[in-house]
Amino acid sequence: MGDAVRIIRDVVPVDGDGAEAARVDVVLRGERIDRIEPVGTTPDAAHVIDGGGRLLLPGFVDAHAHADGRIFDAGVQLALLRQGVTTVIGGQDGVSYAPGDGAYASEYFAAINGPHPGYDGGGIRSLLASYDGTAPLNQGLLVPAGTVRDLVCGRSTDAAGPAELEAMLALVADGLAEGALGLSTGLDYVPGVFATTEELARLTEPVAAAGGVYVSHMRGGYEANSAAGIAEIEAIARHSGVAVHVSHFHAEPHIVHEQLRRLEASGVDAFFDAYPYTRGCSILAMPVLPAWLTVRPTAEVLAVITDPDGRRRLLEEWFPTIVDYPSLGPDWPEMLTLAHIAAPELAWAHGLTIGAAAARAGTGPAEFALDVLAASRLEVNVVMAVRYDRDDADLAAILAHPRAIGGSDGIFIGAHPHPRARGSFARYLRLLVVSRADLGWAEAAALVSTRAVDRFGLGDRGRVRAGAVADLVLADPARIADRATYDDPLALAEGIDDVLVAGTPVLEGGCLTGATPGRGIRRSPSNSLFRKGYGNAGPSGGGTASRGPAIAHPLLKSEMRGE
């Protein structure tokens, strides 16, 4: 569009820095907000959007999403934009395509991220470039520590040796220099579950030096076990001084608040995300198969679970232990609902619990779990209930915390997925602002946009101010609603019909325009135009990497990767 002028007429601007203002006209020039004028005083331009008195908010940032390979799909784009999301942060839970050729992520996380349609190597720089001008939304990335470990250590379950650790450090530093926002871990997944605290602490050294963020799916299953995971995060952060972000921090409100106070008291700079639902979602293999098995290549795992003796040992020796998996317990077959099954002959089981599907198949729950994994080559995900549901008041007590950041943990693969992928951000607004009034609109904008922009170094976004990148959302407060439910998880949100990314309309009247102004977001210095603290959240942000050329290391050779 060059320097084309566009006017958004008659809107109420609101962002995370303060209360909403009077009605105004917002003038865009090219990709940025040029100026803000009193309503009706701006001459017409060739392109005018009628705001009709709606709120104008900065584009929402989903700080934890699994759209890495799905952002190119029109249905996923529509699901996100209808919630107001203009930027997603991927590379979560320690597993994604880069660095490396993407093979490990496409295999192990097939039921979470899916394959990337174009990436086959080249590292973080190449993966970020794949998002430039190819989708209507922006995509940021974290360096995934599990993928790094797999590249260097292969399928080993041993602690990394000194040479291996140096190779991993080089990969992390290179990823940060190429634009990654930080480092992610998934310590209930493989191979992250085998990483020692000392290994993780060392890997955060280049993250701290670059001003990035350590983002952790912490060890131990959350809920009542959160203290153990937070203790490890505290040790890691105190070693390197790295800024921390706790992924999907779900537990009773008093546990969340207590553990955040613990981090603050120890001098750890920590934020967190939490989606506005109680149930979780993950790959079926994580809770129902042992990590020593799932770390192996898929063909080897399948050989074990289809071999009569291997299956017998799992049924007799392993399955009795999964009742101790945090949040599940003895009723685990009724707590896991099948969301995605990559075996067409088992499509009838979508939306059923493992127990109900097993009964229909005429077999036991454990046997059926192994059957569905074998038929799908492990590509199965499930919605996971918890023992103790939290009501709206409990969710609000977590989400209204001044260090909370919006994150859906959205998984866009499955015939019967978790509703969080299509409902989280609309539900934040409906629950916290419209229904309960726990937050005002400015505080809500901080939750869903401004804090994430500052925390992750996303550049001059997150504000409705002159000079800001025009990632903008027009929201009708009277119509904001999440429609996705556990029974109808594919329903789209309502109340946001017009969205712009970099000054270009990408959603008009609730429909995609076909424009693709999105880009891979590289880490930027702390927001240069609008750097500002808010409430008790305090300042935070990214930094700039200062490194030389990429470092080669002999342990990165393919024969060392266990492929």
TrEMBL record:
InterPro entries: Amidohydro_3, Metal-dep_hydrolase_composite, Metal_Hydrolase, Metallo-dep_Hydrolases_sf. It holds the Pfam family Amidohydro_3. Gene3D superfamilies: Metal-dependent hydrolases (3.20.20.140). Residues 533-563 are annotated as: Disordered. Its EC number is 3.5.1.81. It is an enzyme of class 3 (hydrolase). The keyword Hydrolase applies. Residues 535-545 have a biased composition (Gly residues). SUPFAM superfamilies: Composite domain of metallo-dependent hydrolases, Metallo-dependent hydrolases. This is N-acyl-D-amino-acid deacylase. It comes from Agromyces terreus.
